[in-house]
Amino acid sequence: MAEFICLFGKDSAAIVIKQPKKSPLFLRMIVLVFAMVCGLYICSVCLKQFGYVNLQSSQLVQTSPIDSHSLRFVTRIHYPKPQTFNRDECGHNPVRYFAILSMQRSGSGWFETLLNSHNNVSSNGEIFSVLDRRKNISSIIQTLDRVYNLDWFTSASKNECSAAIGFKWMLNQGLMVNHKEIVDYFNRRGVSAIFLFRRNPLRRMVSVLANSYDRYAKLLNGTHKSHVHSPEEADALSKYKPVINSTSLIHDLQETENSAAKALEYFNTTRHIVVFYEDLITNQTTLKQVQEFLNIPVKDLSSRQVKIHRGDLSDHIKNWEDINKTLNGTEYEKYLRADY
């Protein structure tokens, strides 16, 4: 409250009103509130940047294709000096390193052919499918060094003038077991990770089972093909309808989602993006975003590969009624009718 002081002189009286002194406690409260607001803002920013650390598997399918980690880090450029050839006039052209991290039958083969249709990209296939290349962390590092030094030759190699060099790596090919050392390598060498997953793991399951069957059945004139280039070949392979184990189905779907979520958690500190197979098909801007992520000129990309299992899932699962009954009323019911 204000203080009132009355002064009486000979000729007049005056009332002086003194302003109250601001309480130190009040000032401290203002500072405390301001600090709390700033703290909440900083925490919200951090949560957005590190949102994958506590990502639940059921949230994975709702994730935006481009994670904030793709924007927080500047792409590192390199000037490799291969031992097996001379880059000649392209020696002064920078190269970006990348790796496609995925699961079998998630569209990685098709995605890689799209990237390789770019005249500045060399993606060298599933190099760690060979056991000797991933028998221990030393062999893994040696293989990575050969790839990123441009000393790895495949049909996709563009050698001298490659602007982005990489390969695809399945989660079950030593990636998760050695994730600490690989994350350290990625961060040290400036390797950008492209996670490629399917929003619908049930369709992936159909593809896995059908592909495993064809390894022995060889439905295309006695030849096994994981990928085809004509509608006739796709129709021939899609005639086989796998039987899915309905008893373990929900557990198997959970395991697939958990593996993807765990991979994102392990590689959270790397520069990375998350791309979904379904988005590549339905969203024309997704490929543009991938090219921007790699910092290469944006071009129209194409592939000769043809999708094998098209249309409703009910046309591709032999025991469809059992699967429909198992998933109806669960959180996985959406997979029964999702396209692609």
Automatic annotation (TrEMBL):
Transmembrane segment boundaries: 25-42
Start and end residues of each Sulfotransferase domain: 100-310
tRNA processing as UniProt keyword: no
Pfam short name (any one): Sulfotransfer_1
Enzyme Commission (EC) number: 2.8.2.-
UniProt keyword annotations, A-Z: Membrane, Transferase, Transmembrane, Transmembrane helix
Name of the top EC class for this enzyme: transferase
Family: Belongs to the sulfotransferase 1 family.
PANTHER family reported for this sequence: PROTEIN, PUTATIVE, EXPRESSED-RELATED (PTHR32175), SULFOTRANSFERASE (PTHR32175:SF20)
Protein name: Sulfotransferase
Native species: Camelina sativa (False flax)
High-level lineage: Eukaryota, Viridiplantae, Streptophyta, Embryophyta, Tracheophyta
Gene that encodes it: LOC104711605
